[in-house]
Amino acid sequence: MSTNKNHLTTSWGAPVGDNQNSMTAGGRGPTLIQDVHLLEKLAHFNRERVPERVVHAKGAGAHGYFEVTNDLTRFTKAKFLSEVGKRTPLFIRFSTVAGELGSADTVRDPRGFAVKFYTEEGNYDLVGNNTPVFFIRDAIKFPDFIHTQKRDPQTHLKNPTAVWDFWSLSPESLHQVTILMSDRGIPATYRHMHGFGSHTFKWVNEQGEGVWVKYHFKTEQGIKNLDAQLAAQIAGENPDYHTEDLFNAIAKGDYPSWKLCVQIMPLEDANTYRFDPFDVTKVWSQKDYPLIEVGRMVLNKNPENYFAEVEQATFSPGSFVPGIEASPDKMLQGRLFAYSDAHRYRVGSNHNLLPINRPKSEVNNYQRDGAMRFDNNGGGSVYYEPNSFGGPKETPQNKTTPYEVVGYADSVAYDHDDHYTQAGDLYRLMDEGERSRLVQNIAASMKGVQKEEIKLRQIQHFYKADPEYGQRVAEALGLAVQQEK
């Protein structure tokens, strides 16, 4: 016999007789430990928050679909891209990077752009940012970089000295720093920004032929950004501005959309291109590798419950489907492990069983047990492989395709160390207004740096990208710096 839906129950389904008063020994007596309903409420309340994400803690999400608009089956055998007009459901999470769960939406920060495609071959996660590059290019530097973006362990305050000390000692960050400090460092809304896979990936077709690929989501709402002063004002008046904007737009039927394009590079070009194509601090020139349209992403449904869908959503760049594979990008290689490992810690070993993460396709494997296993845990089926009882087996046609690896096992840097050309090109693409605001933003950010040595070291990087760039930052900071030869 089921309980009336209007009757309050405990988590084990028993009706609750009194939800207003706890059991006590007399009217003023101490509370009784036998009040199991009270104990359950308090214990569950203490555990209502899973640990927030170390990075990308503050975010907003939405459901939608992806529709193929161009036949690219000559490049990839991924089934969700197999025919024009095909639609795949998806979930997206936008986020800031450095702030905590309660931080303001309109801070100067990259934005996460994570898309989960629920394909018939399993989930495919494309976990990128609203920038085509990143600050570092080797995952071994990631914990140190993020430490500089978080709070000082003594003062518990943001520390611009740590931020600029790290950047000045990591010249590969210059390209992303220039983007971050430009107008695009503060998008007007999540709807008015591009998204990028950032890394290089590999596409493989039915014949086993591969190409290198980069993803570009182009907003169909147009690019809009916030002035730094207006962003600061909004942060004080409505710190959830971007979250509110996305929810309200979808609620009133103004569905945001993006056109997905890719750049395609033949495998052999990786050995001769003027920049290392696996270096995530660099872009590929669109003159060399033009954008090719793939399809269109539309967001048309808000979450029903923020925690269940947005907070518990887990994304990993290692969630591939046949036809899409990893590249030797050092930063990507580290993320293939780190993201899923973070979710196993934060949400639990069975996070992929949650409705928001569970694939639409059937899941067949020999993983068993673990905390919060809430399906039938494989029932009485065979629980090891290989076996003689007809359990699921590997499909050799879905093996990852090989790529050549040469050299000695060693801690090796990228061969190319030109950190200045692309940052300088970006500066020279800006008009005078954009350059002025860029310099103002950098000067404002560096004002709190405690050591002049750090400022001077960073200015040398600006000089190397473009002499005017370095000179204007130096003047804004009141420093006299000679360009390093």
UniProtKB/TrEMBL annotation:
Reaction(s) this enzyme catalyzes, per UniProt: 2 H2O2 = O2 + 2 H2O
Q: Indicate the segments forming the Catalase core domain, all copies.
A: 9-393
Q: What Enzyme Commission number(s) appear in the record?
A: 1.11.1.6
Show the SUPFAM superfamilies listed in the entry: Heme-dependent catalase-like
According to the UniProt record, where is the region Disordered? Answer: 1-29
Recite the UniProt keywords alphabetically.
Heme, Hydrogen peroxide, Iron, Metal-binding, Oxidoreductase, Peroxidase
Instruction: Supply the source organism's classification.
Output: Bacteria, Bacillati, Bacillota, Bacilli, Bacillales
Extract the Pfam families matched here.
Answer: Catalase (PF00199), Catalase-rel (PF06628)
Give GO MF terms, alphabetically: catalase activity
Write out the similarity annotation: Belongs to the catalase family.
Q: By what name is this protein known? A: Catalase
SMART domains named in the record: Catalase
Write out the biased-composition intervals (Polar residues). 1-24
